[in-house]
Amino acid sequence: MARGGQLETPLGRSSRRASAENKDRFGRFTEWIARAMGTPMFLAILTLFCIAWIAWNTLTPPHVRFDSAANGFTALTLMLSLQASYAAPLILLAQNRQDDRDRVQIEQDRQRAERNLADTEYLAREVVALRMSIDSMTKDVMTRDVLRHELRALLDDLDRRDQTDVAPTEQHSDHR
């Protein structure tokens, strides 16, 4: 009979997914409550509610009053205490969810910063390598002025050789 209970539940179906969805739905609800309680509109509505409550229970005839001013508006105090007792944990739950999101965001920012640092270091190494190769190329390459000077020196050298070669041949032609 125990096997029959196992066969009734199809494989692959689990309550984990539904549970995660419910937790997320409840988490979104707590965030909505926390956001709503922190607005000026909420404070204005709560203030108007309290003013209306007190006005109703002090200005209306005694037989329609439901919270006595003589007892210090006990029902109003209990309602506000109940609201506060639920508000505080809901706000804390919303803050916890925000902390979790912040933690994930910080981790992503840290990873992005590490990648940016690695990219920057790589680019810096590449710039240094380019500078070094440009420096070595400029040391090996002659400038125009140096080339002109060397060519003039070669021409002068050739002219001197021609003059020294021409002079002995003239002497040889004179002797004949």
TrEMBL record:
The keyword Phosphoprotein does not apply. Keywords: Coiled coil, Membrane, Transmembrane, Transmembrane helix. Residues 96-123 form a coiled coil. Pfam families: DUF1003. The keyword Coiled coil applies. The chain crosses the membrane at residues 32-56, 68-93. This is DUF1003 domain-containing protein. It comes from Microbacterium mitrae.
